[in-house]
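ok trying again, last paste got cut off:
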Amino acid sequence: MAPLAQVLNFYILNSRDLYGLPRKFNMAFDSGGAISVVADTNDIAFVATRVAEGRSVPEAVYFRVQLRGITGHRQFASDGGILLTPGQTVAVAAAMIRVFSDHDDRTDRKKARLKYLIDRWGIEKFLEETETRLAFPLVRFPLAECEPRAAVHQHGHLGVHPQRQPGLFYIGVAVPVGRLSVQQMRAIAGIADHHGSGEIRLTVWQNLILPNIPGGKLEAAQRAIADAGLSDAAATFAAGRSPAPATRAAVSRRQTQKLTQSLSPDFSTSDSKWFSRSTFMLPAVLIPALSITSETSDCSAPRSAERKAIRC
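nice, full thing came through this time. structure:
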């Protein structure tokens, strides 16, 4: 998914007419596998899917488009009814952005999102307007004709996993409530430089991924992660370094500096630790995604979590 996201990123950067999107306007590419990027929280999302032999399109991997996710306004994205080849996704994204930019309502910043344009027009009119800006027609294809997605494992990115590149692995590092000290940030940078390719990726659950680590360096990288006071979720609780599963699943967000100053510095961390003490006997697969937030908007994705606590 990363190459497609990078192509779209550079396309937008090099297209001045695509500047000036609302700050909350989001897009995503999702592999359609067990590890999700929470695509249905985005204005526009491309989700990979497989179509089996015997359908009206050739057997292959395609992308479905999900539209008008805006969970801060209590709505997840819904399927747009179209099927794209990987090579069509960036062109369709650019066309949809241009349709939105030309017709959205900027007089009310709370409604400057794709949801409200499609609510006015309907999905079909939006797709027809998108087609006028493309060199190819959009293929309407029923979702039921695609292979069903595998069950999503929200924290499946944690731990050590093989990459498609032979001999390379990535390590998912748990960051309790998304907070790192300066020393931990420097340690992570050093691990990425010395054991990987110098690359660090962020997840929607405020955790880290260290990719491109050779198999021969995995053990040293895991030791360095533990020495930094963090966990790759593979260490045992007895080691005293691995955060409890509930802490690994917790996400925190503060909205404003004023609100931050009114809260204890350990507000979210202490709350998630309390929750961990209450649930540490549960298997990790049963620990819910937990969002502890001090705001009523959706920056910490509380509506995507299975359990949420919002301080009023």
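cool. The two ends are 38 Å apart (CA to CA). DSSP finds nine helices and twelve strands in the chain.
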